[in-house]
Every structure is written in C-alpha cells, then in structure tokens.
C-alpha cells in the first residue's frame, strides 16, 4: 500500500497527470467582460463574499459599495479596486481574492448544425467547438474558420486554422464551400 501511495505521489509531482483545462487561461492576463462569472472571497466577511455575474456592460453590484465596473479588468486589478472601495470606510485591512468561475460564451454561426452561444471550455479548438454544436453542415468549409475577437476594437474578421484555440467571447463563422 505504501509503495502504491509513493508511486501516485511521484506521478502527481512530476506532472504525469493532466492538469485541469481551466489552468490554460492565465487569470493574470484574462480581462473580464460581459457574461463572465466571478467568485469573490473577502476574508472573514461572509456577507461580502459570493458569486457575481457580470451584466451586459461588465458590471455587478456588491453589498456596501454598490455597482462595480469590472469590464476590461484582470482579476488582480478587480481585487485592487475592491480593496480601495472597502478600505477607507468599511474594512481596516481587507484581504480579497477574485477567481473567474465561468468564462463568457463563444458564439457560432454559419455552416454548422447548431448555432448560437455555447459555454467556453479552456483548451478547446475551433474543431471541438464546432463538434459541440453538432458538427459541420454538408456545405461547410472544414479547414478554417473566420473569427471576430471580443477584445478587437475594430471587430475585424480574421481567418484561422481549425486547430487554433478558441478564446472566450469569440464570434466564429464557418464559411460555405463552393462545391
């Protein structure tokens, strides 16, 4: 038994077991936006801690401090905003942790069997995103997709290979083939 436990420990510490797919998106670089859900933990303040969903403008309401604009902030930047709002009037030394629980959905349209909004899963490719929607239609071009990134201010469509990684909020269009 002891030998089995030692082997499991060695495998886990050497990285032989797959890590959770959520680890692929770094919370330090991910910017929050409409459709995201976050868990906010305020140490020793259960009334302030909880799950918050960002509305269409990337905002949410929190007890004591009201409406918070989280759109375009990283989780670490949101932590600092919350500390600054709570520190002067409500808490002496607030300790806050923000974690993204659900990323905003991606959107699929064009020559696929199912269109609409789909829940984002970290690490998925455009091919797996299309598979989740029921696959290609019989007229679909199957080697590339056209994508509008949510953080692109020009909202310009770019052509990407089917094996590229989906990002939260992507608007994905599958084109029609000629023959």
- CATH architectural designation of the largest domain: 2-Layer Sandwich
CATH class of the largest domain: Alpha Beta
Q: Structural class of the helices, strands and pairings?
A: alpha+beta
| Averaged pLDDT | 85
Low-pLDDT residue spans: 1-24
What fraction strand?
A: 25-35%
**SSE pattern, N- to C-terminal:** HEEEEHEEEHEEE
If you had to describe this structure to a student in words, what would you say it looks like?
By secondary structure, the protein is of the alpha+beta class. The protein folds into two domains: 23-102, wza like domain (wza like fold), CATH 3.30.1950.10; 106-174, Outer membrane lipoprotein wza fold like, CATH 3.10.560. 18% of the residues lie in helices and 26% in strands. It is built from three helices and ten strands. The protein has helices at 2-14, 75-86, 126-132; strands at 37-42, 50-53, 59-62, 66-69, 96-102, 106-110, 116-118, 144-148, 158-161, 171-174. The strands form three sheets. Strands 7-6-10-8-9 form a five-stranded mixed sheet, with helices on one face. A three-stranded antiparallel sheet has the order 2-1-5, with helices on one face. Strands 3-4 form a two-stranded antiparallel sheet. The longest helix is centred in the first third of the chain and has 13 residues, at 2-14. The chain is elongated. The model is unreliable at 1-24 (pLDDT under 50).
